[in-house]
Amino acid sequence: MSGRKTPVDRLLASLIVILLSPIIFIGIPTRLAFNEWFIDWEYSKVSFPKDRYGMEDEYRKYLAKLGLRAVLSDEGMEDFKRAKLPDGRRAFREKEIRHMEDVKNFLGFFFPLVYISSFLSLLCLIYLRDFRMVGKTLALSSLFTLCLTLLIGGFSVTNYELAFELFHNYVFDPYSWKFNYTDTLLRIYPMKFWYDGTLFVLASAGMLCLFSLLLGFLLLRYRR
Q: What whole-number distance in Å separates Cα of residue 161 and Cα of residue 184?
């Protein structure tokens, strides 16, 4: 049996890369945003809203970082459950804890999917071997994801609250993530936090797409 690559094999490898590209281009910036630096950056902004009930930003930031660790590790989740407010009261209700457990479960699926998709796409690009075919695949992947990113970005800028609600209703139980303004999660992660995070992810994804598109065009011009 011949080990020669057929046009169908190459087309399939190329399609895999194109279809996985949104997961990679959007997933990598998302993983970057789920770090303490992003919380520090948001809270350092003059425009970041103050807590309506008077909690100091330093303590809000401390609780926000606890929340970050909670959705990334079991140990962090245990610390999150034990968190207290400055007056000694329990920081988070059971509903808030359940939602963070849902987020942790989702990220426990999504981030490995990003890593696996990246590795599989790299293998497919290596399999193609031909520089021009790789260039075409990168260009198409970039254009596909860039169009998707612009579509999501346009919708988010136009009506972010609706975009936020649609995403959460799709990923989580519609009744599990809606909280009162007095709940600590909304006090440490106001809507501006998520709006800025969404813009960061989409802008970073767009830049990755443009870089990949440029690389694709350069490879398309390659001559042996």
A: 19
Percent helix / strand / coil, the chain, rounded to 5:
75, 0, 25
Q: How far apart (Å, rounded) are the C-alpha atoms in residues 216 and 17? A: 13
Q: Which amino acid, one-letter code, is at 150?
A: L
Question: In this structure, which amino acid lies at residue 30?
Answer: T
User: What DSSP state is assigned to residue 178?
Assistant: -
Report pLDDT digits (tens) over 40-58: 999 999 999 999 999 999 9
Planar angle of CA 41, 211, 127, nearest 5 degrees:
120
Q: Which pair of structure tokens corresponds to residue 107?
A: 């990220």
Please write the tens of the pLDDT for every residue from 122-144: 999 999 988 999 999 999 999 99
pTM over 0.85: yes
DSSP states of 48-77 as a string? SPPPTT---HHHHHHHHHHHHHHTT-HHHH
